[in-house]
């Protein structure tokens, strides 16, 4: 390639147009354009329409560098007159990383999270009374369905002991840490955070109440979630420490209760619903999972786990029944291979119903009954 120079203007290539193209490239982890994040280094124009762009990565081992190279190459390659794009990679200095971390925190006081009063993010706490009802699988696919509908979506895997979000999304890498700020792991258009990104699959998490509370607090406050439309919380089963911590940290979160048709699952899920009602936590609704077993050969549906559990739970906690998701082979297989069914088999009966539920998720506000109202003194 011919030597490049910042001053040289390649025939037909406008430097301002190249910078404008770079402004349209977003870092998938930061949710900022490359110029906003300070990631654009030297931009040089050469002979014959050649352009060389240096991208400054947040870390030399940035897991998204191949995607960034591809996105920059595509964006700059569309500029009139550009015949060839070369992308060089460099790492930010410690000072640049520190300034970026400060920018990501913004004016928010340290130790606070962005989902409090005044936040436009809808927060849904996906809960069940017992394990094994497919709560995490529903959370993962619901998140992808919302993202496919154009929303910015995050999933916080708060099921500390039984974390499964990394498996369901097929990601195993640790998040990037940026001077006290963690960047969520991005997969299938969803921002993810889980204890599972920090420990080996075989390693048990032996934490008690205070450690659990601190971990959840850090996942809310120290993670750069960006501008989310919806945050889904995958809660552990039951009404233990994690659930109580989230009620304290996110008082405006809406409960999404998951059950199977079985009486046993519905009965224990009702306890979670009653706990939410007692704490004046808004309840968005109930989803009945594994409502029927779909035969892969003939599409015949069998009520393998009984019938009516979702409707009974909805009646018990005075909430709407949002949908009944069947159990089919594509949904089960997708969880095993680490690709959500909404991506792998979007036309499967399970994916179709989850997509419908995502499109009709209600927004329920916390009642002011029992809360102190602000008083003005004249």
Automatic annotation (TrEMBL):
Q: What residues form the membrane-spanning segments?
A: none
Q: Which SUPFAM superfamilies does the entry link to?
A: Fe-S cluster assembly (FSCA) domain-like, P-loop containing nucleoside triphosphate hydrolases
Which GO molecular function, any one, fits this protein according to its record?
Answer: ATP binding
- Taxonomically, the superkingdom here is Bacteria
The MIP18 family-like domain covers 16-87
Residues that coordinate or bind ATP = 129-136
Q: Which UniProt keywords apply?
A: ATP-binding, Hydrolase, Iron, Iron-sulfur, Metal-binding, Nucleotide-binding
Task: Please give the family membership noted in the entry.
Answer: Belongs to the Mrp/NBP35 ATP-binding proteins family.
Give the protein's recorded name. Answer: Iron-sulfur cluster carrier protein
